[in-house]
Design goal:
The chain is α+β, with helices and mostly antiparallel strands. The chain is built from four helices and four strands. The longest helix has 29 residues.
Amino acid sequence: MKITKLDSSLIQISLACIMTILSFGDAAAQEKTQVVRLAKLVIDPAQLDSYKALLKEGIEAAVKLEPGVLTLYAVSEKEKPNHITILEIYANNEAYKSHLQTPHFLKYKTGSKDMVKSLELAETVPLVPGMKIK
């Protein structure tokens, strides 16, 4: 059997389609295993600058050093700057558990314990799970 140029092109297109479908399946499976949570904190206003410096250091280290940390994004409320919300996205539960044992997280947790007046952790379900933060 002789394979023509057209046959070769069709084979390449078919393989590309199969690879795309397979990679989409992997991405969809990964999205289902992600851990997505919101941490809502109230910080002692007198210690807010120290807290923000500690938080920045911890977030930058986690995102840089931990492949399973997909997003850590912190914001504060305009009218109440000591009210902080952190969006946390981990590849899976193992990545989340591993994050809790890292030196930078433990430094953050220990260093901020007297700064945090309240902490609420909310497990969430993404409404548009394929959306990526640019």
